[in-house]
């Protein structure tokens, strides 16, 4: 039932858990998909034998590599910490790789959907090193590029049209509130956001404030 529930709200209309999703992301950015490339499995003797045995080229693995031009970094994971440390913006170009053989559901969430030329609010989490190493070897991906996935997959990819612009507006206000370097300033900004009259941001700002206060006490 949990898997079905995740589809009840499209990412562009999903105002739930904005604080949790942003704080779990290495970067929250606005970016445009500027390129989409089909990537095939690196040719090896093992792949050649597999194709020969099946007499079918389609047994070779494949995937799609999306190149995303980052227009601006909305917030960084460090912004949500009580003891902020200097952190840079997201790379100017980031990459999302989706294997063709990956199921439509990943870890209980629908996987990302991206379209070339479209602009998105992206909650970005880096690939696990184990997965990245395997994909570099299998697909001969460039190991020097920064690869990410969406936080909670499809929930981390918000198309910036219609409802998606509302999600961007609320996430931006939340991120602005936690951007100050000093925790006292963060708490003051979050209290103001709580009192601003927006019921969604009231909840999200309160949760962010309580987490910061708990971290500050420890």
Structural write-up:
The longest helix is centred in the C-terminal third of the chain and has 19 residues, at 199-217. Helix content is 36%, strand content 25%. Helix 6 (183-194) runs antiparallel to helix 7. The strands form 2 sheets. Strands 1, 2, 3, 6, 7 and 8 form a 6-stranded antiparallel sheet that branches. A two-stranded antiparallel sheet has the order 4-5. The radius of gyration is 20 Å and the shape is elongated. The protein has 7 helices and 8 strands; from the N terminus they run H-H-E-H-E-E-E-E-E-H-E-E-H-H-H. The chain has helices spanning 2-5, 18-23, 45-54, 129-139, 163-178, 183-194, 199-217, and strands spanning 27-40, 62-76, 93-99, 105-106, 109-110, 119-126, 148-150, 157-159.
Radius of gyration: 20 Å
Mean pLDDT: 91
Query: Could you give the count of β-strands?
Result: 8
Biggest beta-sheet profile: 6 strands, antiparallel
Work out the helix count. 7
Task: Determine the strand fraction and express it as a percent band.
Answer: 15-25%
